[in-house]
Sequence to fold (830 residues):
Amino acid sequence: TFGSDGAKAERMFALMDGFLKNDSISLQKDILHHVEYTVARSRFSFDDFEAYQALAHSVRDRLIERSHDTQLYFKRKDPKRVYFLSLEFLMGRSLSNSVINLGIRDQYADALSQLGFEFEVLAEQEGDAALGNGGLARLSACQMDSMATLDYPAWGYGLRYEYGLFRQVILDGFQHEQPDFWLNFGNPWETERVHVTYPVKFYGVVEEENLNGEKRNIWTPGEVVEAVAYDNPIPGYGTRNTITLRLWAGKPSDQHDMEAYNTGDYINAVVSRQKAENISSVLYPDDRSFQGKELRLKQQYFFVSASIQDIIRRFKDGHTNFDEFPEKVALQLNDTHPSLAIAEVMRVLVDEENLGWNKAWDIACKIFSFTIHAVIAEGLEKIPVDLLGSLLPRHLQIIYDINFKFVEELKKRIGLDYNRLSRMSIVEEGSTKTIRMANLAIVCSHTVNGVSNVHSELLKTKLFKDFYELWPEKFQCKTNGVTQRRWIVVSNPSLCALISKWLGTEAWIRDVDLLTGLREYAADADLQQEWMMVKKVNKMRLAEYIEAMSGVKVSLDAMFDVQTKRIHEYKRQLLNILGIIHRYDCIKNMEKSQRNKVVPRVCIIGGKAAPGYEIAKKIIKLCHAVAEKINNDDDVGDLLKLVFIPDYNVSVAELVIPGADLSQHLSTAGHEASGTGSMKFLMNGCLLLATEDGSTVEIVEEIGADNLFLFGAKIDEVPKLREEGSAHKMPLQCARVLRMVRDGHFGFKDYFESLCDKVEDNDFYLLGSDFESYLEAQAAADKAFADPQKWTQMSILSTAGSGRFSSDRTIRDYAEKTWGVEPCRFPSDG
Ligand code: NTF
Ligand code: PLP
Fold:
């Protein structure tokens, strides 16, 4: 690289503003170059999709240049790096986000218009990268953006699934899943690193060997799969720093099953070689609970092993003493999914680097930190010992050893309290013996955090009380956040311009606390006027989409009321639908003369159900059945519409969120660890109707209870209400709407029976007991909407108070209080 001439290197860095120029002519030439030589179409004749591909490649060139500079700079400065391990990243599209972060959106738009293309039209050609399920996965993506923007020396590691999250197709109101083969037309953003490959071992046997009087464990694998790196650049905003999301794909290893070739079964040997690629082929689409599937465990270990090998290789390139490892490396476990990394680090340090157990354990305990996204014990991963022992025999031994030492230590601290010992043990005895991955992660991590204040308290007082009492200092809270770059600047350009105009600066895009500056203008008639205009434009965009998707024409004067998120019983989309039926019923039974008092609504619901989640699928069908009835009732007209937006993903969210007036977050209190959708709606000046759960509690602290519509049982009231069970009375209105469903008012009465039973029999999610309070909150929302000035003021105050929910704040907090990493900024302005 720059050799030992530090001064020369300094000069090089100071001079470097990149080889590629960003003036309009240079950009046009670059795009045409890629049309001709990358896409291989004539530069005199290419369509929108080909133009998008060429455009993406020209942006990628700029990203690559910056990521090279960033990596060289990191290498020279050698800061402590943080490695973010996550099995899921919901990145969405990259084009608009990249050019905005690079600061060359307008230049590209200009260059394209010279070539006869429109930037927005080409941006629509891009498909989503949906390598994740929901909240956890989108959080990872937001956090990558913040790590890059805040100049942290960070890497993301994950799996390059060939099939992302399934596409949701609705036929006759039922959800069907179609494969998302997102790489069909290539992926212009990634770079395959054919030289960055590592062997990953599975199965086989472990034998103890005696080497010069020392016992060593030798693992002879039964299968070896090669992991190949695919690098995806993540540009920061207002900085030249561009970090990397490195995703691993499986490919057959030369070491794979050589025996089969030797025994002459050539065809079967080739077929079995191809199996290696299956490891990274498909994302598990269920975000509920862990199912002890071998392929899933293989995926986890595959990505963990490749990542750890890569991290250790980078460390060794410049360091020889593992004592320095914790000064250079922080490993963040995003949920328990990557927690096999703990056993893998121990295996490498003990078996391959020969550090000895105690030293290896000391190092491991200094590098890991662990974020929990689950709320209930059932959501925690438990791996059957038989499965782990067969797939990763050496890791099982290591986990047993960790547990043995932990339990011995624990006995010294707490005595022979066998109940507590067995609760805290990493190994769960029972009919099927399992490994509790969360316990493993807590035992080894120096820091464990929840994702909102209430969730973090819940971890300390309920889920991991025993561990909290043992190690109170380990437990932290890191309230989630979302990136204002994607969720305002990219997805709501009109709002972005309006905010910058009134604040007199664009600095809030990097320093989001400045949004509080809007508070002083919240009652200003001019701002309110412009604010309403922006909302109207976004509603128009959304209305066009709704009509195109469902054929339903909606009125822009109606309140756009949105609930979009994965379909779960605890998120209570059913409560929303029952509320809509109630509203419909009220309108139908109202004197015609009274109807002009009704605030018109467009109710919008969207979200995917896990393919095997029957109840969630019935909720989707019920939504369609009710929509069919309401939307075709001319008597109701524009007073009420219900639309289901299919295939909710990041791109759809970018369209829906800016156009929402009201958004609903209805989780039964105590069930939503945080919620991040709410934060995006809040930033976009959408009012929330919500239970006091997860991060909503903090949103209330920030914007005040007067600026949103709260309802329902509070967290500490839930257990008592459940205990009372069916003893508590179902409110009449709720019983009435359930009766309508049971009587076949919306068809399919037998099919919906089990949905009604759930509410009427034990009502675990408390739809009945929260129903009245829900209707009151809805009435309050109607009342506020009828007063546009008041509504707009609340809307401005929502955006103004959303700064605390930026992932920049979250990431700074992780960096300072958990990882101990510092910004390392390439010396240039971006
Ligand atoms: C989710 N968990 C939680 O359910 C949300 O409350 C939270 O906002 C996000 O994580 C991000 O922390 C998951 O997506 C998973 F995968 F755990 F189900
Ligand atoms: N899915 C997508 C596509 C999203 O953009 C979000 C937003 O955060 C989520 C799921 C999570 O939403 P929620 O926090 O409301 O569950």
Observations:
- Residues 134-135, 138, 565-566, 648-650, 653, 675-677, 680 surround pyridoxal-5'-phosphate (ligand 2) (CB under 6 Å).
- Residues 48-77 form the longest helix (30 residues).
- The two ends are 22 Å apart (CA to CA).
- The first strand starts at residue 81 and ends at 85.
